[in-house]
Specification:
Helix content: over 70%
Strand content: under 5%
Order of helices and strands: HH
Mean pLDDT: 86
Shape: rod-shaped
Radius of gyration: 30 Å
Distance between the termini: 101 Å
Number of helices: 2
Number of strands: 0
Structural class: mainly alpha
Largest sheet: none
Length: 69
């Protein structure tokens, strides 16, 4: 079976283009995953600081008893 040279070149070019697109998509997904990890770390850090700061907002049992007396 005879396949013209221009057809083979066209198919090879399409394959190379697809490989480049796949690599770009993989890089985009990698960056998105890194951003998600960073934002999750920031959220965890924020939660930890909020929990420690919330202890100052809550009154102790002794303070509540003194206020009610």
């Amino acid at each position: 079976m005879f396949i013209p040279k221009w057809l083979l070149k066209n198919i090879l070019r399409q394959l190379e283009d697809n490989e480049i697109r796949i690599k770009r998509l993989e890089l985009i997904q990698l960056r998105q995953a890194q951003n998600r990890i960073e934002s999750a770390k920031k959220e965890i850090a924020d939660l930890n600081t909020r929990e420690t700061s919330n202890f100052k907002k809550y009154s102790t049992i002794e303070e509540i008893i003194q206020k009610s007396s």
